[in-house]
UniProtKB/TrEMBL annotation:
Gene designation: rpmF
Keywords: Ribonucleoprotein, Ribosomal protein
Pfam families listed in its UniProt record: Ribosomal_L32p
NCBIfam families: rpmF_bact
Signal peptide: none
Name recorded for this polypeptide: Large ribosomal subunit protein bL32
Molecular function as annotated in GO: structural constituent of ribosome
UniProt GO BP: translation
Entry similarity comment: Belongs to the bacterial ribosomal protein bL32 family.
GO CC annotations, alphabetized: large ribosomal subunit
Residues passing through the membrane, by range: none
Length: 78
């Protein structure tokens, strides 16, 4: 075992001038495999609700631009 390890070190030094090789994939990644992996890299649309107090759409759990939250005015409008 040790002898094989020593020969591997010597072989690496002869081929690369003493530098170790970089890790390289054993097989080419096909475009289908790449696209299957990337299907989850998509953006989702933000969830919006219709605010009846202001008549506008706003994101859930946030104060609207007119200062309303859950139908009550909690701050001055911008």
């Amino acid at each position: 075992m040790i002898i094989k390890y020593v020969f591997d070190i010597v072989k690496t030094q002869k081929i690369n001038g003493g530098h170790k090789l970089m890790a390289v994939p054993a097989r080419h990644t096909s475009s289908a495999k790449k696209n299957r992996r990337r299907t989850h890299y998509k953006l989702t649309a933000p969830t919006v609700k219709f605010d009846e107090a202001t008549g506008d759409y706003s994101r859930s759990h946030r104060v609207s631009l007119k200062g309303y939250y859950k139908g009550r005015q909690v701050r001055d409008a911008k």
